[in-house]
Amino acid sequence: MKTSQIRETFLKFFESKGHTIVHSSPVVPGNDPTLLFTNAGMNQFKDVFLGFDKRPYTRATTAQKCIRAGGKHNDLDNVGYTARHHTFFEMLGNFSFGDYFKRDAIKNAWELLTQHFHLPPEKLWVTVYAEDDEAYDIWNKEVGIPAERIVRIGDNKGARYMSDNFWMMGDTGPCGPCSEIFYDHGEEVQGGPPGSPDEDGDRYIEIWNLVFMQFNRDESGVMHKLPKPSVDTGMGLERIAAVLQHVHSNYDIDLFKNLLAAARKAVEEAGATDVDPDSPSLKVIADHIRACTFSVADGILPGNEGRAYVLRRICRRAIRHGYKLGARKPFFAGLVDAVVAEMGEAYPEIKNPKIKTILAKEEERFAQTLSQGMQMLEEAIAENKNGVLDGQVAFKLHDTYGFPVDLTADVCRERNLTVDMDGFDAAMQEQRDKARASAKFKMAAGLDYNGADTTFTGYTETEHQGSKV
Ligand code: ATP
Ligand code: MG
Ligand code: MG
Ligand code: MG
């Protein structure tokens, strides 16, 4: 089944169960300052869950464009390292707004997976929130999953596990215990079952999260009951596609195969030779071009603050990976065409020709400093003795060569080095203080106070904040 058919099958299945098919919302959340990017299908329904907004339906289903590259859910550093994380991905979801609850959520999910997607039940594992006997019993007694493949996740295993089965959109907002479905990709892949010490491998992959929305968490962490218990589910389209296409990695599905081939061709045309088709850098590029294409399509421009800076960072990271492979000419912006070829039908907004122009400008801008910056970084790495890159160097790269500090850290990580972030922060602070002092001096001296200076100060300040989101 092709990725586009899987998306269609999911939506049609839930439509047949009384759900209204609702369009994806943009990757920029509408009117929600608590979120940097849309990170889940439920975001656009937040106010419906909270009872502030009413819709003409109580059941909905979506394929939602998501970005997890900043804020509470941030997978930027996983990309290229795991088989299952993207910065941009599509989340398939079904929602009940005070309509059905746990039983139907679980039974529908099981029916879709085993009867429509024909997954062998013995390959599926589930987790439940430790105290959720109700969900446990539905899986065990009604669906018939044996106890060996149901894992209770909660307090007894420590905070990390607890939080894994209690889903929160962000620090505030709708939340609740959840039950997750995992697929066993087989013993030839590394990794342990959910809840085990080596669960972070790629063998048992989380495909679907069923969240039993019951609370609204406020700023002080207090949980208030929602008007009605509700359901919010999310299944990564690329992950279920990997399962259904009998491949282990998201990067081996139809859609990504084509993007990876296009990325390889583009870097080779830009000067790279003998590019390994399995190179993590190609995966990063294929992943990041989707995030960039969709971000610009939804109105974000590369810049120095907030989500604009996240976009710049994603863009520059990808360009640096191309450089690493040997590209010495622009290659990145042209890949928008490959994304459009794969996804333009489902998401016509990416057919906008401005996207390529905007990304090409950003690529051109970074090209002016990339090779010099890389040379400086290479020298610092070669001279390094303690495994920690000097914060001053990271700051100079940031300030003079436009290297976001996470890009520098990405290069360092490839060489088993870390970045001295305290040193970086101190250098940043020092520059800020200097800029302030000089502005004060100019004002006191009655000199013409030109706007360029304030812009400059703002640039470093916000750029730094952006790099931390
Ligand atoms: P993981 O533990 O693998 O990081 P998660 O628990 O953070 O996933 P959820 O917040 O539960 O993910 O999101 C619901 C579903 O969305 C997941 O079950 C998965 O299928 C998919 N998903 C989550 N993050 C990503 C990502 N970065 N790339 C691709 N798919 C993702
Ligand atoms: Mg995650
Ligand atoms: Mg998880
Ligand atoms: Mg999850």
TrEMBL record:
Reactions this protein catalyses: tRNA(Ala) + L-alanine + ATP = L-alanyl-tRNA(Ala) + AMP + diphosphate
Keyword terms of this UniProt record: Aminoacyl-tRNA synthetase, ATP-binding, Coiled coil, Cytoplasm, Ligase, Metal-binding, Nucleotide-binding, Protein biosynthesis, RNA-binding, tRNA-binding, Zinc
Similarity remark: Belongs to the class-II aminoacyl-tRNA synthetase family.
Lineage, highest ranks first: Bacteria, Pseudomonadati, Pseudomonadota, Betaproteobacteria, Burkholderiales
Source organism, top-level taxon: Bacteria
UniProt name for this protein: Alanine--tRNA ligase
Main location, first listed in the record: cytoplasm
Requisite cofactors: Zn(2+)
Described purpose of this protein according to its UniProt entry: Catalyzes the attachment of alanine to tRNA(Ala) in a two-step reaction: alanine is first activated by ATP to form Ala-AMP and then transferred to the acceptor end of tRNA(Ala). Also edits incorrectly charged Ser-tRNA(Ala) and Gly-tRNA(Ala) via its editing domain.
Residue ranges occupied by any Alanyl-transfer RNA synthetases family profile domain in the UniProt entry: 1-469
Cofactor note: Binds 1 zinc ion per subunit.
Record text about domains: Consists of three domains; the N-terminal catalytic domain, the editing domain and the C-terminal C-Ala domain. The editing domain removes incorrectly charged amino acids, while the C-Ala domain, along with tRNA(Ala), serves as a bridge to cooperatively bring together the editing and aminoacylation centers thus stimulating deacylation of misacylated tRNAs.
Main enzyme class: ligase
Keyword match Mitochondrion: no
UniProt keyword annotation of Metal-binding present: yes
